[in-house]
Amino acid sequence: MKFRQKIVFAVCALLSWQATGLAQTTRELPDFGSPADTILNRSKEAQLGRSVMLQLRNAGVIVEDPQLTEYIRILGSRLASQANNGDFTFNFFVIDDNQINAFAMPGGHIGVHTGLILASENESELAGVLAHEVSHVTQRHIARSIYDNQRMSVVSIATMLAAILIGAVADSPDATQGLLMGSQAAQLQRQINFTRSNEHEADRIGMGVLAAAGFDPNGMATFFEKLQIRYGVARQNIPQMLQTHPVTGSRIAEARGRARQLPQVDHVDSIGYSLAKARIMVLDAATPEAALASFDRMDDASPAKRYGRALALSRMTLNDNAEREFRALVAEYPTVIAYRIGHAEALMESGYTSLAMEVYGDATELFPRNVPLTISYAEALIEAGRPAAAHDLLLDLLNNVPPTPAQIQLIARAANAEGDVGNAQYYMGEYWISVGNLPLAIERIRMALEAPGVDRIDKARYEAKLELWRSWMPEQEPRRRPRRSDDEDGGRSRG
Questions:
Q1: CA-CA distance, 350 to 245, in Å (whole number)?
Q2: If 0-12 CB within 10 Å is exposed, 13-18 middle and 19+ buried, where does residue 192 land?
Q3: pTM
Q4: Spatial separation of the C-alpha atoms in residues 242 and 100, rounded to whole Å
Q5: What whole-number percentage of the chain has pLDDT above 90?
Q6: Where are the domains of the chain?
Q7: Residue 13 · residue 160 · CB < 8 Å
Q8: Catalytic site residues?
């Protein structure tokens, strides 16, 4: 899992550039709220966040692993429920990068890097970082920062936009970073106190969120303290988190003092936390053999270690060995869904399809509509030659859970394998909408209308969707047909 650093700088530049554009064009004046509302109201904030998410997803830096995504979503939602008054719909996701970092974006989108998850020593530390980022969102620090920067010069905007283009074309993160630092240097001193104010406020509010959610309130302070000890005097290789969230001794002491005033919680790490770390270790290892060696060096016999070893064995195609370990874990811990998924997947890889289907069937009866389980089961059903069952299973899930682009592609694959070409094309239209490509979405819905065997009800549904999507097209927007490289969906959708 490798992360291209140019994306970090490009997104930072794009945020500043787009936000400045909003400052120049928005004329809405709210009836109440902070001065930042005149620059970036909440509707625009959500729109900006969605735009950046599209670019992150299209750049391939968001981890699409359903089990990691589900864990961070559950953890984040637990924290957000203690901080959110309903004004924000939070979206928590994992970034494929070994740097120690997390960030908040407009509209409640919060990303956490795989490197930060691995660097945390307990769940309260990880939760402390997320609670801090949640507080940046609820206190609208991003909108307030944009308000503070509304007089950014046209030269600065042009420089940052050029940095995006140069970084994207030349694949040169160093050049991109240099351009951005030059354009922002004149503002650095004026912003530093404002940044510190934001950080202290996010600490204070985030710590209350952390305790209210049932985590050790010391988690936030201990994690930042470890970072300071490790990197405090370093001039190079400082993690991105310390560059964007500067930590001082006084700030840590203040956090420690606040934690002592809150109810002390003896939090026990969830099994999900331990399994997420084990999963990242396997996915991030140079080879599955290296991952297995890492687990073998551990001097414990924890379930997480056994799970990691089984994953590594499976990736080494030693599926019989992996299956035995997963089967033993299921017997000992029958309520842990990850073990059941691993067991079923190992059986599938070993060619024991009927046994795998029994495992999946039992698991889905116990845990209906669990996202990682349902996605794994649907993939297995398609592989087993039962795409209609996979289609039905995914329809039930995705009608109740907002789908990711990868999940929309999977249901398109199931429909196409079933021979339902119309719906396969329709789903691919929804996929292209989800990644922000309206012309390709329209092209796909037209192909759905032309597919053989489309009944009257589906035809009316496709036509309504086509009319809606056409209404979104700017009048002068050129409409291009899909290129072969653009329209890759694994070769599974016809047309």
A1: 47
A2: exposed
A3: 0.80
A4: 9
A5: 54
A6: 6-261, 406-495
A7: yes
A8: 133, 203
